């Protein structure tokens, strides 16, 4: 993944019906470690990372980079939504440097539509700063929650391929696609 490119950052916090998308702060560190150490979160993305390693390596303010939003519910992190540039050498037949959406939510926050609400807001922000650009998304075919979310957000399947020893669902969202 490479960074998103020239963009005014940080943006003002983005409010949705129930959530706020904002940049990370030091108070998010413990929740970021929970996210990365969770076996459920890691199930289809290469596994959980050891907690002691995370305690050593996660910076005081975790994940501060253009395109990374903390999803905040009532003042606490429940997940992250990212927009990065897909590396050209990865599979997925799109132009090099196409933007890619990623999402990680704490298991207690699954099943309420929070990920859909947050991703739709992040895609709206992206469309405002990079008008007319498509966004891609890659997720294991077996990750049914993630594929359902991608389709709800307006991504349509382009191809499937094998990567990291698993079949991947690769989708694209055109700039004018409707979403949840
Ligand atoms: C992928 C992931 C973000 C999906 O989370 P999610 O909560 O299932 O996604 P959504 O926000 O779309 O919520 C959908 C669910 O909320 C329910 N829901 C409840 N209230 C809702 C509301 N007000 N609006 C919308 N949906 C609502 C829906 O019915 C649906 O339930 P179901 O799963 O029982 O069908 C989450 O599973 C996750 O973080 N996984 C680990 C990380 C990962 O694999 N990321 C993919 C890498 S690209």
From TrEMBL:
This is Protein N-acetyltransferase, RimJ/RimL family. It comes from the Bacteria. Pfam families: Acetyltransf_3 (PF13302). InterPro entries: Acyl_CoA_acyltransferase, GNAT_dom, N-acetyltransferase. One of its GO terms (molecular function) is acyltransferase activity, transferring groups other than amino-acyl groups. Coiled coil: none annotated. Keywords: Transferase. Residues 19-177 form the N-acetyltransferase domain.
């Amino acid at each position: 993944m490479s960074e998103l490119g020239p963009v005014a950052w940080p943006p003002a916090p983005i409010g949705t019906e129930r959530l706020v998308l904002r940049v990370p702060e030091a108070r998010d560190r413990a929740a970021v470690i929970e996210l990365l150490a969770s076996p459920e979160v890691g199930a289809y993305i290469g596994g959980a990372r050891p907690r002691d390693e995370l305690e050593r390596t996660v910076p005081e303010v975790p994940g501060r980079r253009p395109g990374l939003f903390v999803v905040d519910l009532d003042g606490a992190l429940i997940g992250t939504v990212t927009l990065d540039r897909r590396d050209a050498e990865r599979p997925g037949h799109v132009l090099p440097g196409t933007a890619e959406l990623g999402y990680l939510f704490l298991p207690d926050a699954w099943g309420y539509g929070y990920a859909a609400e947050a991703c739709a807001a992040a895609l709206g922000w992206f469309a405002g700063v990079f008008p007319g650009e498509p966004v891609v998304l890659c997720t294991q075919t077996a990750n049914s929650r993630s594929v359902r979310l991608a389709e709800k957000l307006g991504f349509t399947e382009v191809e499937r391929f094998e990567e990291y020893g698993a079949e991947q669902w690769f989708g694209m969202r055109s700039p004018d696609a409707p979403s949840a």
